[in-house]
Design goal:
The chain has helices at residues 3-29, 39-52, 58-79, 84-102, 106-111, 116-122. The protein is mostly helical. The longest helix has 27 residues, at 3-29. The chain is elongated and about 65 Å long. The two termini are 29 Å apart. The mean pLDDT is 89.
Length: 129
C-alpha cells in the first residue's frame, strides 16, 4: 500500500470521526418535549428510587434499577460540557468530502437536522449529491 493510499485512508477515517462526533453531539443536545429535568429533580428521584428498591418486587426492582441508571447517565451528561462550535467547525471541514465520497445528499443531512448554514459551510448544496 502506497503512502498516498495510507494518507487517503487516514483522512477518510478522520472525516468520519468528525461527522460522527458532530451528529452524536447534536443528538445528545437536541431539545426534548415536556418539562425539563433539573439536576435537583433527578437527585430527588434517585433518592426516591433508593428508598423503594429494598421493598420492591423483582419486576419493579428491575424497572427501578434501569431508571436509576438512566438518571445517572443524564446527570453525568449534564455535568459534561461539549463545545458544539468546535465540533461544528470540524464537521464543516470534513462533511463535504465525506458526503461526496459516501454519496450522502443534502436532503439526508437535512432530515437529520443539520442546519442549512452548516451545510453551506461544508460545501454541501441542495440538489447536489
Amino acid at each position: 500500500m502506497s503512502d498516498t493510499h495510507k494518507a487517503a485512508l487516514a483522512e477518510g477515517r478522520e472525516q468520519g470521526r468528525a461527522v460522527r462526533r458532530y451528529l452524536e453531539a447534536l443528538e445528545a443536545h437536541k431539545p426534548r418535549r415536556g418539562r425539563k429535568r433539573t439536576p435537583e429533580s433527578m437527585q430527588k428521584r434517585l433518592a426516591a428510587i433508593e428508598e423503594k428498591l429494598p421493598d420492591a418486587d423483582p419486576l419493579t426492582r428491575l424497572q427501578l434499577v434501569q431508571e436509576r441508571m438512566d438518571l445517572q447517565r443524564q446527570l453525568d451528561a449534564a455535568d459534561s460540557t461539549v463545545d458544539l462550535q468546535e465540533l461544528e467547525d470540524e464537521f464543516a471541514k470534513a462533511a463535504g468530502d465525506y458526503s461526496r465520497r459516501k454519496g450522502i445528499t443534502y436532503a439526508a443531512w437535512r432530515e437529520l437536522g443539520i442546519d442549512p448554514a452548516v451545510l453551506r459551510r461544508a460545501g454541501i448544496r441542495r440538489g447536489a449529491g
